[in-house]
Amino acid sequence: MPPPPPPEPVLVGPNVETARPRIEEHQGEVFYTKTGKPFTYRTNHYTLVVVESRRNVQWHEIRSALEAWPIAGPSEIPRCPERSGRYVYGIVSDERIRQGDW
Q: Which residue among 31, 43, 57, 81 is least crowded, i.e. fewest CB within 10 A of its CB?
């Protein structure tokens, strides 16, 4: 009798605990807003700083986007100002961060 097949992989689901190390790992790389505008960011303990605009993105804005996932664009991120939402969406929707988990 053959052994049972391995279980199906379980999706991690979007959460900041999974996403934060990935976001930190890819800082300095080029990301794109939904409209195709390129940007880079750097992280620190409290924020992400979008290099091109010197805009601060708060980690709680990343958390809001992940908790609301799936979303179609930046305007659907709760408690996230429009000026930050375009960058938040560009980060959390990128496959380097998602890695097929959401």
A: 81
Beta-strand pair 55-58/47-50: antiparallel
- CA angle (88, 73, 33) in 5-degree steps: 50
Identify the residue whose tokens are 């976001």.
23
pLDDT, tens digit (0-9, with 9 covering 90-100), for 51-75: 999 899 999 999 999 999 999 999 9
What is the token pair recorded at 64? 């809001």
- Please determine, for residue 10, whether its predicted confidence score (pLDDT) is greater than 70: no
- Label residues 1-35 b or e (16+ Cβ within 10 Å = b): eeeeeeeeeeeeebebebbbebbeebbeeebbbee
Q: What are the C-alpha distances in Å from 14 to residues 26, 78, 87, 96?
A: 17, 15, 17, 13
